[in-house]
Amino acid sequence: MRAITGLAAAGYALLLYAFIYLPVVVLVLFSFHDGRLPIPPFRPATLKWYAEVLGDDDVTEALVNSFAVAALSSAVACLLGFLAAWGLARVALPGAGAMRTLLMAPLTVSYLIIGLGLLISFNLTGIDRSLLTTGIGHAVINTPLCFAICSASMGAQHTGLERAARDLGASELKVLALVTAPVLWPAILAAFALSLTFSWDEFVIAFLLTRFDVTLPVEIWSLLRSGLSPKTNAAGSLVFLVSVVVVLLAELLFFRRRAS
Amino acid sequence: MSRGLAVENVTKRYGTAAALDAVSLTVADGAYAVILGPSGSGKSTLLGMLGGFIDPDQGRVLIGGEDVTALGPVQRPTTTVFQDYALFPHLDLADNVAFGLRMRGWKRAARRGRAAEMLSLVGLEGAAERRPHALSGGQRQRVALARALAVEPAVLLLDEPLGALDLALRRAMQRELKAIQRRLGTTFVHVTHDQEEAMAIADMVVVMEAGRIADAGPPERVYLRPATRFAASFMGEINLLPARALPERGGGPMFETALGPLPSPAAGGALPVRALLGIRPEHLGLALEEMPGPARRVTTVPATVRESAFFGTHHRVVVDPQPAGPPLIAHLPQRADPRPGDRLMLAFDPDDAVILPEEET
């Protein structure tokens, strides 16, 4: 009886993982497909689609754009989120609870709504759509996330450390730079890595707010318009690979620090 | 560059409750002062005010004669050893100790050198590159001390620094703190609720009660001649007897107490009409023993033992005085072997007793 339930549980787990990962597996698998269309049967195996993707100037340019947008917007989001978390943790303000809620609420709003709002705002202020506006959009969606992560790791023991630093003559700026930020470094890094992956494969806002220079997801979307091809699979696989690497790095850094 | 300090008439209220109520205090240059009191007596508030972490509602704080009331902790010539040590976990011991010097613009090599000196002062030579999490509680305490002393503060503040240590380590650290203070000559202000700790290290004990100073002075004086009932009982066990002055009839002033008429301790000035007579348990001995000193007066009290316990250095007994009176506590010699029901003749020198002002409780 026990063996049967064990088997059933294992089977269920297998199905669940298949459900989650099968699309990705198919995507990656057919990026190595030796044929014009990414459809079964799978014909192994070639790297020519990767060569084609990386040889396509539009794609490589979009790749660089995506890196730049992700890195800069994540840095901004981390800075804003960290400072907001620090301020709300250290200063007793009237309505601090409401401010917290307001800062985190955008996490529940769909990217489409945020993107539309930004598009309208930029139109009204006469700012042209560009990578900059996309970066601003990504900072907007990732700041609440960074705030939540930094906020959760700021405890009372850090207040004691900051007090000790002031007692020894540190100005507020030095307290932040030499004590608070280094002590919270794992949380800040985790927030940065997570923002990076969110920005890296974000499509809706990037689609609405870019114009001539586009990010990689937007470029992939325009590739898709000319029909399915293993080349699109290769581009998608690259996007996925980068996300996985970033997440793994963050996990390693974050958990290794925690364990020590 | 050590300097004395003074607080003048400082008051701090939280809502309607006064954490400090018009407190004035002077600590001499180079003294080791211990602020002693139960939790909620305002001792930590007073320390926070010296460090600049708490602003007084009224009054002034002076260090070395200068008014520092308006200065924050960054500008004050004080440093603090915090109760939880508050060592920086991301820095090694040398960088922890050198943090204050870094804030004062010292170059890295110079400040690491000075940090090594400070670490050897507190008995942690060679540990410069270790991290705080690898240390025991006692070692963290030492690093916190070295860090606070590295910048040569005018006054070092210690907020229950030994509270987290076990008893043996605490006693050892008390001796060490005292030795370091003697060596550096810096003014130390140390907060604790442990009266033994206070007596072991202080040049000056400040007993606090409900936001006021109940007594302040050298430990011997505060223990033997406390100014208030609270100071008397907080410093150690004491028998308190309500007393009323009797009309002078020759042979010295007398008090009427529940034990009958007792001679008054020798005291300068006029005696109060109503007072409390305080007798420490160790001043109540057996009448059979020879009382030390040639010219001492002795008063005897017949009593019956109610309970007895052996404390190592003495037997602590609770006795019922005969024919009447409140139960008294006495410390009898190790070999006395008192048992419940035993009848004893207790004796004390009236000069060992102390007259305390009667207060409503």
Description:
The complex is a heterodimer of chains A (260) and B (361). Chain A is mainly α and 260 residues long. Chain A contains 12 helices and no strands. Chain A has helices at 2-30, 48-55, 57-90, 96-104, 111-125, 131-153, 156-167, 172-183, 185-200, 204-209, 216-225, 230-259. The radius of gyration of chain A is 22 Å and the shape is globular. In chain A, 34% of the residues are buried. Chain B has helices at residues 43-51, 93-97, 99-103, 108-121, 137-149, 167-184, 195-201, 219-224, 229-235, and strands spanning 5-14, 17-27, 32-36, 58-63, 66-67, 78-81, 155-159, 187-192, 204-209, 212-217, 239-245, 254-257, 260-263, 274-279, 285-286, 299-310, 315-321, 328-332, 343-348, 354-357. In chain B, α4 (108-121) packs across α5. In chain B, the strands form 4 sheets. Chain B has a 6-stranded mixed sheet with strand order 6-7-8-3-9-10, sandwiched between helices. A 5-stranded antiparallel sheet of chain B has the order 13-12-11-14-20, with no helix packed on it. Chain B is α+β, with helices and mostly antiparallel strands and 361 residues long. The two termini of chain B are 44 Å apart. Chain A binds chain B through residues 157, 160-161, 163-171, 174, 178-179, 182-183, 185, 260, and chain B through 51, 53, 72-75, 78-80, 82, 84, 86-90, 99-100, 102-104, 133, 147-148, 151.
